[in-house]
Amino acid sequence: MIRQKLEIIGAFMLDQFKAELKGQDHKASGDLESSMKYTVKQTAVGWEILFSGEGYAKFLETGSKPHWVPIDALIDWIEAKGLESGEREVKNFAFAIQKKIAQEGTPTKGSYKFSKNGRRKEFITHTVNANKVKINNELLSIFGSKITATLHNIVTNNSFQ
Question: What is the CA radius of gyration of the chain?
Fold first, then answer.
C-alpha cells in the first residue's frame, strides 16, 4: 500500500518535471523527457523516490559557466529544434550560439525569450517548491495513518498490568 501511494507521487512529480521543462522550452529531440524515470525503493530506514534522467539535466537545473560547446552538438540541437534550415544558416547560428555560451554560460540572456514561463533553469527546484504542500499532505496521509495504526496496534496488543 505504501509503495503504491509513493508510485502515484513519483508519477505525478515526473509529469510536473516534464511540464516545467516544456514551459522553459527545453525540448528539442525529446531525449531528456524520454529518459526521465522514477523508482520507489524501500531502504533500511524508510522509503525513497529516486528520479533520474540524461546527464545534461543537471545543467538545465543549475545552468553552466562560460565554456565552449562542441559545434556538432549545437548543429544537432538547432536542427532538432528546427530553428534554422540550410547548411550555411545552421552553421552560422551554431557558431553564434557557441560564442554566446563561451561568453555568458547557460542559460544565455537571449534564451529567455523562448521560455513560456519566464524560467530557463531550476526545473527541479521550482517544481518541488510549487508542489511542496501537496507532496507533504500526501506523505502525511500515507505515513501519518501508518504511524497511527502502528501505535494503535502496540497499545492494543500490549495489555497494561
Answer: 22
Measure the CA–CA gap between 41 and 38, rounded to whole angstroms: 10
d(CA 61, CA 58): 5
DSSP 106: B
DSSP label at 144? I
Distances (CA, A) of 39 to 49, 50, 122: 6, 5, 21
**Residue whose C-alpha cell reads 501508518 in the numeric block:** 146
- In terms of Cα–Cα distance, which of 117, 122, 80, 121 is closest to 104? 121
User: Does pTM surpass 0.70?
Assistant: yes
Adjacent-strand bridge partners of 48: 41
Query: pLDDT tens-digit profile of 127-155?
Result: 999 999 999 889 888 888 666 666 665 55
State pLDDT tens for residues 56-98: 899 999 999 999 999 999 999 999 999 999 999 999 999 999 9
Identify residue 108 by its one-letter amino acid code.
T
Nearest alpha-carbon partner for 60 in 150, 140, 124: 124
